[in-house]
Amino acid sequence: MSDPNSSPEVVDINLALVRRLVANQFPQWAGLPIRPVEFGGWDNRTFHLGNSMTVRLPSARHYAEQVEKEQFWLPKLAPGLPLPIPEPLGMGVPGKDFPWHWSIYRWIEGATATIERIADLTDFAKALSGFLTALQRIDGTGGPLPGRHNFFRGGPLKTYDEEARQAMAALDGKIDTDAARSVWETALNSNWQGSPVWFHGDVSWGNLLVDRGQLSAVIDFGTSGIGDPACDLVIAWTLFQGESREVFRAGLQLDVATWARARGWALWKAMIVFAGMAGTNSPGAESSCRVIHEVIADYKL
């Protein structure tokens, strides 16, 4: 097995590589067609394998730890959830062609949850809050605590304090920095008081699938773990608004302090993207600016 400490940071993942990996490690599926999916994500690269499977490979070394976690925990989470989640069918091992573990999953039908594909945003909010409530109720004993494997999702926001304040300084004059500081410091001044609960860690449109306008599945549990569920509520400002936001919040029935920390999570991510800080990606400056204004307006209510 390759030494993960000596592996490269990033690997060029292409169709030829995936064909070799499947042929060498899963010869029973070597004859099936392979093609990239329309939206393969940032943390991993995903390919169709035949008509009923996907191949998923971490795109960089700091995502590689997530593979074994998903392989172990997803089958344990699935029975307690009201919607499909990825079902592991096989785990590839590191080798000369690819230095990390990788996965084969059963294919889940559906398209990513862009706003135009959602039939009714309020119904969608209700279904998503129901899914997250069910996830939080699953026994978390032995689950993965926040750490490097999930970029400390589910842990204290103070992990990102320096980064958030750098972004605030960079955005001075572009946003209401006094209000942003109040949102951030309010979020920092509370902690999850309950036992650690399961969270997804990246509840965003690209990890939610829709079928005929309805929420049909939740994918990509790479940043999942047990801890504070506030990180799962960011979608309240990135996707929902008005009635749909209220329905989402009512369905989760979490305390005021948890929502304050959720605003902090949303603000941190939107600010670092809007400020163009290193390592950031989608949704881009315009969308991030809107999220910042939405979070601040919600805080002032």
How would you portray this structure in words?
The protein has 2 domains: 4-108, Phosphorylase Kinase, domain 1, CATH 3.30.200.20; 112-300, Aminoglycoside 3'-phosphotransferase, Chain: A, domain 2. Helices cover 38% and strands 14% of the residues. It has helices at 15-25, 65-77, 121-137, 161-170, 177-188, 235-238, 242-252, 256-274, 285-300, and strands at 34-36, 44-49, 53-58, 88-92, 102-106, 111-112, 197-199, 208-211, 214-218, 225-227. The strands form 3 sheets. It has a 5-stranded antiparallel sheet, with helices on both faces. Strands 6-8-9 form a 3-stranded antiparallel sheet, covered by helices on one side. The longest helix has 19 residues, at 256-274. Residues 1-6 have low confidence and may be disordered.
- Low-pLDDT parts are 1-6
The ordered string of helix (H) and strand (E) elements is HEEEHEEEHHHEEEEHHHH
Overall outline: globular
Q: What is the overall pLDDT average?
A: 94
Count every helix, treating DSSP H or I runs of 4 or more residues as helices: 9
Binned, the helix content reads 25-40%
Number of domain modules? 2
CATH homologous superfamily grouping of the largest domain = Aminoglycoside phosphotransferase (APH), C-terminal lobe
Radius of gyration: 19 Å
CATH class of the largest domain: Alpha Beta
Structural class: alpha+beta
Q: What profile does the largest beta sheet have?
A: 5 strands, antiparallel
CATH topology heading of the largest domain = Aminoglycoside 3'-phosphotransferase, Chain: A, domain 2
